[in-house]
Amino acid sequence: MAQQTQYTTAQAPLKAQLTRQGQLNSAGDARALYLKLFSGEMFKGFQHESIARDLVMKRTLKNGKSLQFIYTGRTTAEFHTPGNSILGNSDGAPPVAEKTITCDDLLISSAFVYELDETLAHFELRGEISKKIGYALAEKYDRLIFRAIAKGARQASPVSKTNFVEPGGTQIRVGSTTNDSDAFNAGNLVNAFYDAAAALDEKGVSSGGRVAVLNPRQYYALIQDIGSNGLINRDVQGTALQSGNGIIEIAGIKIYKSMNIPFLAKHGVAYGGTTGETSPSNLGSHVGTAIADGRASVDGLNNNYGNATDFNKSCGLIFQKEAAGVVEAIGPQVQVTSGDVSVVYQGDVILGRLAMGADFLNPAAAVELYVGASAPSAFGTTYPANA
User: Fold this and answer.
1) Is 63 buried (19+), middle (13-18) or exposed (0-12) by CB count in 10 A?
2) Domain ranges of the chain
3) What crossing angle do the helices spanning 186-202 and 216-228 adopt, rounded to 10°?
4) How far apart are CA 276 and CA 65, in angstroms?
5) Per-residue model confidence (pLDDT) at position 102
6) How far apart are CA 267 and CA 259, in angstroms?
7) Among residues 95, 145, 129, which one has the least CA distance to residue 306?
8) Predicted structure pTM score
9) Which end of the chain is more exposed for a tag (fewer CB within 10 A), N or C?
10) 3-state class of 106 per DSSP?
11) Cα angle vertex 99, ends 352, 296, to 5°?
12) SS3 for 383?
């Protein structure tokens, strides 16, 4: 009969002292540093793709579902009568109004990484996936903000007190025909920029922080033309003007390029029809996608961002920082499963998430460029309007 060996505590095998490379100071979560690595890749992807976040008013939302932005109208100056008490202007100026922006539901992008696939792969997978998750979040983030700015350009001011009505948004026609190709004509765009600058000046909008966002083909057509007519000194700015990151200016307006602006009912680009633009071959399925329904009736949305028909003639944006606001309850961040979940599924879920909402603030600071005989109509004037 086999004899069983009995181990005492002293004789039991020693527990190995592991060095966990993902652990911070040899304590806590064994994957803490890995999570930060993925966060870095996700943030890198988000920041690479998103330009709107730094071009509008951004606030952090805590302990509530919405945030009020206070809008103060103009005040007046009057002569003082000796002996009279000073208790504020006799006309009650300045008038004050508010604009409420509600946070939309949680926006997520995720991927499951099977551990065996990762082991067998000869390339680093998680960092690349995290970067693409950052791209996806940034794309959605910018699209919502740009649609909110276009919405604001069609609105009246929230200040409506008698004798103190503030100016509303501005819509400027690009070209003079009914063809969508006017949107790509550099001369038309230059004229629109000067019209927009004059309108912003007339409405008392600060000259600081004025920007424009065009689609890539508009941008490159523009810099080719304005480089030849003296508006840009190529010797000074060199190839930097090709970046589309606000290097060049027209009328004090810094110009950016993005595939996320609403453009002729699509995102960033439109071909065929009366655009005069020939579609390049092998575009892929994500280029020139139709604008998705962004009305408040759509699950997950608590703000009205319009739908495709609201932007069928929109072809660019010019605005100042106060044109729109974004509230963030959860900024861009990443989460990775670990522990029992990883054991059960033999892999990890990499999840990028953020919670935000956007809407227009000061319509006077927003300018929408459009083509065609009539300006696009206003939408979403009441909450939660679905038209």
Assistant:
1) exposed
2) 32-70+106-275+289-370
3) 90
4) 45
5) 94
6) 6
7) 145
8) 0.83
9) N
10) coil
11) 55
12) coil
Residue by residue, what is the 3-state secondary structure of 181-231? HHHHCHHHHHHHHHHHHHHHHHCCCCCCCCEEEECHHHHHHHHHHHHHCCC
Residues 6+ away with beta carbon under 8 Å from 222: 186, 189, 190, 214, 255
Beta strands per DSSP E along the chain: 57-60, 66-72, 96-102, 107-114, 170-173, 211-214, 245-250, 253-257, 262-263, 266-267, 314-319, 324-336, 347-360, 366-370
At 5, give phi and psi (nearest 5°). -90, 130
Here the tokens at position 191 are 């004229």
Q: What number of other Cβ atoms are within 10 A of residue 15's Cβ?
A: 6
Per-residue pLDDT of 184-239, as tens digits, reads 999 999 999 999 999 999 999 999 999 999 999 999 888 887 655 555 555 545 55
Q: 32-70+106-275+289-370: which CATH architecture? A: Alpha-Beta Complex (3.90)
Q: Are 22 and 33 contacting, i.e. CB atoms less than 8 angstroms apart?
A: yes
Token pair belonging to 385: 């309007």
* Kind of pairing between the strands at 262-263 and 57-60: unpaired
CB count within 10 Å of CB 179 equals 16
Amino acid at 349: V
Query: Are the C-beta atoms of 86 and 105 separated by less than 8 Å?
Result: no
Q: Measuring CA to CA, which residue among 58, 99, 147, 156 is closest to residue 383?
A: 99
Tokens standing for residue 141: 């983030």
What Å distances lie between residue 129 and 120, 125, 190, 252, 354, CA to CA?
16, 6, 40, 39, 17
pLDDT-flagged residues of the chain (< 70): 1-24, 26, 28-44, 47, 122, 226-247, 381-387
- Are 312 and 375 a contacting pair, CB within 8 Å? no
Q: What pLDDT was estimated at residue 39?
A: 61
SS (H, E, C) 14-33: CCCCCCCCCCECCECCCCHH
Residue 69 near residue 361, CB atoms below 8 Å: yes
